[in-house]
Amino acid sequence: MKKVFYLIVVLFSVNQVVAQWVSPGLGLSYSLETLCLAAPSAVQSTSSHHYLILQNLTLSAGDTLTLESSAESVTVANGVTLTVHGTLLTDERTQTLVIQGDSTQNNYFEFRFEGATQSNLTQTHIRYCDGIKLINSSIEIDSCEFDHFSNHVISYMNCHPVIQNSFFHDNQACAIQSAINADGCPRIINNVLYNNVLANTNNPQINIGPGTTDTIFIVGNRIEGVASTMSGGVAITNLTNTGITKVLLKENVITHNRYGYTQMGYRISSEIFDNQFIDNDLEVTPNNGGSGISIYGYENNCAAKLRRNLITGNLWGVTAIYYHHVDMGTAEDPGYNVLYNNGNGGVDYELYNNAFSNMDAVGNYWGCDNDAAAEAVIFHQADNPSYGLVNYLPINVIEPVIISFDFFLENNPGLAYPDYYNNLYGTITPDDSILFYIGGCVLPDLSNLKPTIVRPLGISVSPSEDEGQDFSLNNIVTYTVSTPHQTYRDYVVRFIIEAGIPDNVLTKINLAPNPVTQGYFTLENPTEEGLQWQIFTSTGQLVMFGEAQPGMNRIATKTLKKGTYLVYIQKESSFVTKKLIVQ
């Protein structure tokens, strides 16, 4: 299988325009109002709280410009470069400031930060810009919006910017990128990247070169393509065999791109945890891309560890190419990745080890419930002696179950009744009923409620959580959960006007201590038989499982991070879910 990739190239050029204003570098502090007085030919006030920049403007080292909270907009003339060597501050803003080129003339300007490490951009909307260059400027960008850029939105070199809680959309090139030899370890956290790379070039929305001894964080983002058939999701490359690149790719949703995530080259070590790679299938030639995850190593020091990822609807699930060290799960540390419906040409390709290296992929779900079906969608040494061997047994099989079913006030404001209703928590019974016990003089409006349903990764539910249903007392609503290998289970939701919980031996199971503070808890099994238990994250990702014998069972939690978990305990067809807090 042939793969075609791109080369990251960035040129940090200097825009030379004769007309310019440069601050003296004497430790002076400016606002937009005082700049109008200090540089009247460069900065003008067009009306109250609105400004126009007509010339190149440079803030020298030692000087500070604070964009005051009263400012509403700044329009920058075509071809102007705003350069910050000193400190630009926006952190005291309470309303959004718009900085833009003249959209009526399709004008663009450039923003440059050089050695401006104390600067920040907060609550700022920048549009019709040629690009923001960060050179030796580890600034913080928070709660900003960037759109209609003619080039890459943020390009960085030799710095470690923090880019968080921001919205990148409808731009011609990458949202965030670095040069092929520009060391840096950005923190890209909780952003939305939507419909970028509209020039339809072979680039991803996040395009990053080598890192340093720190870790590149790409966490909690939504990266969605729309119009560009050539745009990828995230790419990490080290083609020059320089430095050491470490990546944490976690809790992202990467969807509808040409590919999801790719890393290529030397000395890249990535942890790919708890992400969703969905429908990255825009590549028209499968041999050129379309993987949910692609690891292309020039040597075995191109390493990746994959845990608890959902990978579905891509042309390829996971592809491992040339040399690599990929860990998708071991007997001691199962992968719990969920892969299904990845394929092209009428053939499913959940994992394609097109490489010399062997790999472990134990404890994953492959869209099926038996070993033979898993072997059919994993391509490795059994299919071609030149491929590396994939150790994938035992497989993990997911079941069509609901772990918890609740109604939360944030999705159902009609539950906000004084002194009584807020969140409603369902009780799941052995006969697959989900019961809500309500009472009081005033009942809430149950006619259009949207539930929050926690189920194992890869399980579908119908009707969906986004569809409001009528749960009035005379109505019975049925939810069907299903697996990709077509096993089903129906749950009936009922509201009951009385207090109480059904008497079931499983409800007497106790977890202590809870919260967990010492690295373990005890599960008390009051039955005379062994019970199966599983621990899920609050979003349905399986992280631990085992069997509890009658009596006291000590369960270590040292591998769990701080947070809230759901412990699913099963006895034949009966089960109960307990909440567990790890501190």
Describe this structure in words.
This protein is mainly beta. Helix content is about 0%, strand content about 45%. The strands form ten sheets. A 14-stranded parallel beta sheet has the order 1-5-8-11-14-17-20-23-26-29-32-35-40-42. The chain has a 13-stranded mixed beta sheet with strand order 3-4-7-10-13-16-19-22-25-28-31-34-37, covered by helices on one side. Strands 12-15-18-21-24-27-30-33-36 form a nine-stranded parallel beta sheet, with no helix packed on it. It is globular, with a radius of gyration of 27 Å.
Q: What does the radius of gyration come to?
A: 27 Å
Q: In percent, how much strand structure appears in the residues? A: 35-45%
Largest sheet: 14 strands, parallel
Low-confidence stretches: 1-18
Based on helices, strands and strand pairing, what is the structural class?
A: mainly beta
Share of helix, binned: under 10%
SSE topology:
Elements: E1 20-22, E2 29-30, H1 32-38, E3 43-47, E4 50-53, E5 56-59, E6 64-66, E7 73-76, E8 81-84, E9 87-89, E10 97-101, E11 110-114, E12 120-122, E13 124-127, E14 131-135, E15 140-142, E16 145-147, E17 154-157, E18 162-164, E19 167-169, E20 176-178, E21 187-189, E22 192-194, E23 204-208, E24 215-219, E25 222-224, E26 232-238, E27 245-250, E28 253-255, E29 261-265, E30 268-273, E31 276-278, E32 291-297, E33 302-307, E34 310-312, E35 316-322, E36 325-327, E37 338-340, E38 343-344, E39 347-348, E40 351-355, E41 359-360, H2 371-377, E42 378-379, E43 390-391, E44 404-407, E45 424-425, E46 427-428, E47 433-438, E48 452-454, E49 460-462, E50 477-482, E51 488-497, E52 510-512, E53 520-525, E54 531-537, E55 542-548, E56 551-556, E57 563-571, E58 574-582
Parallel strand pairs: 1-5, 2-6, 4-7, 5-8, 6-9, 7-10, 8-11, 10-13, 11-14, 12-15, 13-16, 14-17, 15-18, 16-19, 17-20, 18-21, 19-22, 20-23, 21-24, 22-25, 23-26, 24-27, 25-28, 26-29, 27-30, 28-31, 29-32, 30-33, 31-34, 32-35, 33-36, 34-37, 35-40, 40-42, 41-43, 47-51
Antiparallel strand pairs: 3-4, 38-39, 44-45, 44-48, 46-47, 49-50, 50-51, 52-53, 53-56, 54-55, 54-57, 57-58
